[in-house]
Specification:
- There is one protein chain.
- The protein is an alpha/beta fold.
- The protein has a domain of 39 residues.
- It is built from 10 helices and 14 strands.
- Strand 12 and strand 13 form a beta hairpin.
- Helix 4 crosses helix 5, helix 4 packs parallel to helix 6 and helix 5 packs across helix 6.
- The longest helix has 18 residues.
- The protein is globular and about 70 Å long.
Length: 324
């Protein structure tokens, strides 16, 4: 084998080792939807990493690409280009059989629309048993009751869909998602169809599953209030990662040290994300504060250990926006 070939193999091995440090590793992810007359680029070189056992949220407005990303992570769709590793496995190399096994064994899905989660003419416990039947597991009833107890619904196990509230139906959906012991729980707008109190209960279940089981939980939503309940929030805009909000202290520490009113004020530090090409997405409210539009130019200066962004016409006396 030539020296060049040895170098290429070593580099490929190194890349796999780097990727496998995370349960989710996305690099320069691209997704293009094509029809006869139109081509839509939903993901435009998105980068994302999620650590094992992390509880995090992905936020973005409608059309930002967050649902497309969720479908990629869930094995429901394939990227057009880029890298996508989940639990050390390269999803771009999966054939249909491997992808089916991945969806059955590695990820659990909770949808906003309960019609996708539950079969209405079955009881709660029967709904939870279905994934285990497909996987030919034994002691399904005992496991289903255990999972319903985990989400606080063992007393409602014999009730059908019409006898459960929206929040209860969503908790049954969480139990179904856990039926085959997935490594990742993916939740698509899980609190979008419930009231504030019920949403808090559902998020509490996610935190408890994350704490007790060490389950990696990824919540996709447009609701920025979810940042109060997770340790990291990744914002997506126009198919790219735009910024991250990282909690100053863990959720448990914050509750222990602050009263509720104080806890609601400042919980996270916002970080802009610079991708591998050096592109930086500046938060929209920052641009508005500088009266900048999407196609405006902006001055960039280096001051010691800071990159300083200035409006084109800014003078020395004007207030500066600094990125540490």
């Amino acid at each position: 084998m030539s020296e060049l070939e040895n170098t290429n193999v070593a580099q490929e091995t190194k890349n796999v080792e780097v990727d496998s440090k995370y349960i989710i590793y996305c690099e320069n992810l691209v997704k293009i939807f094509k029809t006869k007359d139109i081509e839509v680029v939903a993901l435009q070189g998105l980068d994302l990493v999620v650590e094992y056992g992390e509880l995090m949220a992905i936020i973005g407005n409608s059309g930002s690409g967050k649902s497309t990303l969720l479908n990629m992570l869930g094995g429901l769709d394939r990227p057009s280009a880029g890298k996508l590793y989940v639990d050390g496995k390269d999803l771009l190399k999966f054939d249909d059989k491997q992808l089916y096994a991945y969806k059955r064994e590695t990820v659990g899905f909770v949808w906003q629309n309960n019609a996708r989660n539950l079969i209405p003419y079955l009881t709660a416990v029967e709904n939870v048993e279905i994934p285990m039947i497909l996987d030919k597991r034994k002691k399904r009833r005992e496991r289903a009751i255990e999972l319903l107890d985990m989400v606080g619904l063992s007393h409602r196990r014999n009730n059908k869909l019409s006898q459960l509230s929206g929040g209860e139906q969503q908790r049954v959906a969480i139990a179904i998602a856990l039926a085959n012991n997935p490594k990742i729980l993916l939740a698509d707008e899980p609190t979008g169809a419930v009231d504030t109190k019920t949403a808090a209960q559902i998020l509490g279940i996610f935190r408890e599953l994350n704490r007790v089981l060490g389950l990696t939980v990824v919540i996709v939503t447009h609701d920025r209030q979810l940042s109060k309940a997770v340790d990291r929030v990744v914002a997506i805009s126009d198919g790219r990662t735009s910024s991250e909000f990282i909690r100053k202290k863990s959720y448990a520490e914050a509750l222990a040290e602050m009263d509720r009113a104080e806890h609601e004020k400042e919980t996270h530090i916002e970080y802009a994300v610079v991708d591998r090409a050096g592109r930086l997405q500046i938060p929209k409210d920052y641009l508005e504060a500088l009266h900048l539009k999407g196609k405006d130019k902006i001055r960039v200066e280096l001051e010691n250990d800071r990159i300083v962004l200035l409006p084109p016409e800014a003078s020395e006396g004007e207030e500066q926006a600094a990125v540490n």
